[in-house]
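Escalated from tier 1: uridine-diphosphate-N-acetylglucosamine holo job.
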Amino acid sequence: MTKYLVTGGAGFIGSNIVAELLHQNQTVRVLDNFSTGRAINLANVLADIELIEGDLRDLDTCRRAVAGVDYVLHQAAIPSVPRSVDNPLATNDVAVKGTLNMLIAARDADVKRFVYASSSSVYGDSPQLPKQESMALLPKSPYAVAKLSGEYYTRIFANVYGLETVCLRYFNVFGPRQDPASPYSAVIPLFIKSLLAGQSPTIYGDGRQSRDFTYVSNNVEANLLATTAPNVSGQVFNIACGNRFSLLDLVNTLNDIIGTRIKPTFNMARSADVKHSMADIRLAQDCLGYQVKVNFKEGLTKTIAWYKEEHD
Ligand code: UD1
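Tier 2 regenerated the structure:
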């Protein structure tokens, strides 16, 4: 039987991966220290998974987590660009030391393939759109630098040690289980929460900044494809929809779906914020067989339905 380790499996993206793996009757182990991951995300599946509560900054814990595992889906990180601006050491420790520990453990345990969740933030404000994997990278936040370091380590482990690795550069992911309660939460859960409560969402800046907002099931699918696609070791792939929407578009679309007409409030732009982001996804399509299954509006509709149900 095939065994998967999902690091950060109690987090937003990780727990969505766990759910799909279980749906496909796979064997799943989760490593999480519940720093940003939430127990509630695994509450329905605790009987079906093996859970290691531990920290990937500890190499012995990583070794325990990879023992007997076929594929590692390394999602664990401390998310949020502004959080990394406030506390760069914590972001760096988990993304860089944690990833290096996981790679060493995976190499020594003869894992078949190691999939690393990277971030579109590595492109920074490079002028060219859409972003292609071969472009020069201009990270502009501690988060982006840390994610890029993890990416370089992951690629180096393919080249130097022959560990099969794949990096997936996620573009602004959203969907069920994304935490709306932290000051560092991502924009979509924050805006949905505000509108459902009849409150005005706060836009930082003029709202014309744009993102390639991607529904989480697309990322889940990309992870599974990345474990088995042939001849991709050492490569990096954008995972997104290949479209971009501004925050003004986002507020309008959310208002349309929810049936409200609440205007946003404007505040100062965040430091280290990227202006525009949009992916070229052709490499993932060609090499991984990746396809966008759920688009922006359909994803928002599903996500709003989920938050409404949660609220009830
Ligand atoms: C960045 C990365 C993304 C990564 C994520 C991890 C880029 C382009 N994207 O997302 O790949 O997964 O970090 O945390 O670098 N905003 C508001 N009001 C709010 C909250 C946010 O206007 O209440 C704005 C932000 O200023 C930003 C946009 O919404 O312009 C998106 O912010 P957020 O959801 O936090 O994600 P990014 O920082 O873009």
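DSSP finds ten helices and 13 strands in the chain.
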